[in-house]
Amino acid sequence: MTDQGEIREKKPTAIKGLLFLIVMLIVAAALLALALSRRSEEGPQVVETTPTPISVATEPVAIQTSFELRELYSGLAAPRRTSQLGFQSGGRISAISADVGDPIRQGAVLARLDTRALNAQLASAEAVVEEARAGYALARNTVDRQRTLQGRGHVSQQAVDEAEAQAATAFARIEAAKAQSDTLRVQIDLARIVAPFDGVVTSRMADEGAIAAPGTPVLELVENGRLEARVGLPASLAATLETGADYILSSDAGDVRATLRASTGVIGSGDRTVSTVFDIANAGDVPAGAVVRLGLDRDLDARGAWVPIASLSESTRGLWSVFVAQPGNEGTFAERRLVEIIHSSADRAYVRGALEDGDLIITDGLQRITPGQPVAPRTDRAVAQTVSPS
Known about the structure:
Elements: H1 2-42, E1 54-60, E2 67-79, E3 82-86, E4 91-96, E5 103-104, E6 109-113, H2 116-152, H3 157-190, E7 192-194, E8 199-204, E9 211-212, E10 217-222, E11 227-233, H4 235-238, E12 246-251, E13 254-267, E14 274-280, E15 291-300, E16 305-308, E17 313-314, E18 320-328, E19 331-344, E20 348-353, E21 360-362, E22 375-379
Parallel strand pairs: 1-22
Antiparallel strand pairs: 1-21, 2-11, 2-15, 3-10, 4-6, 4-9, 5-8, 6-7, 8-10, 11-14, 12-13, 12-15, 13-14, 16-20, 17-18, 18-19, 19-20
Helix pairs in contact: 2-3
């Protein structure tokens, strides 16, 4: 009986809690409806605030009708002569007297072939020459005797003619033997490699004991006293250069003076440039193989202005844009202007487009700028430039 009584007492308590929750929800809904009705009667609350102008660095635009452009054209300082030296005939190399890096004087013997067989052939040929000379001497004596006997009436003219023919044949044998000897001497001389000019050995392809094939390079010799530079130029610029005039070429080792030796005047099919050849005055001022640059100035007729690279941002259709601090009735605002880059250097660009002389372009903080944003321009006279960069 006790358990059933407790159960009957709990049921009325749960009902009271549910009723209390319903009443609270009704009260909260009434309060919310009252608040919304009052807000609708008062109307929307608009907070009016004036944006704070952003301080930006600016630079005045100076419009030009043309600008001077200095263009650099590169080439290589190369030895005027480079030869890969080898033997005309094949054979075993008996000696190489030069190595990589050795300075060489013209006429120095750099390598030799084994010429023992040729020397033996030469000795034999020289013996044949002596034999032919002896035969010729005998034939001449015979001619003299036949003529004496003819004068006394002991021999006929035919005998004299035969003796003279034998003498001529003997003389021809001398000439043939001498030619054979000279041929062997030339072969012995060509069994040496002789430096054709002053230079330095830059490569050695063989050593003593190797069998050298005819024409196979054994040493590479580079002329070190004379350097030249070949520079490709546009045809219009190459035509303005004067043959024999001095020009300054720049390199990593410094500036060097060079004289224009020749211009081909023919546009190459590959790079579409005209090849010009400069003789470097002092070859010791720049190493062989170094990159040299020829700087030429030319005027371009293009209306525009120089602006900092930092003031440019990429736009559409290959154009770029700058922000101009444009004064208005209620202050100064950022205005976007489209421009086209004509030429650019390391930190500045020559552009043309919707710019007027005296416009203040914004040069920093472009990531914070949007069109129409209030700005407070400041001009940094230290960075303002009205001429092209050097």
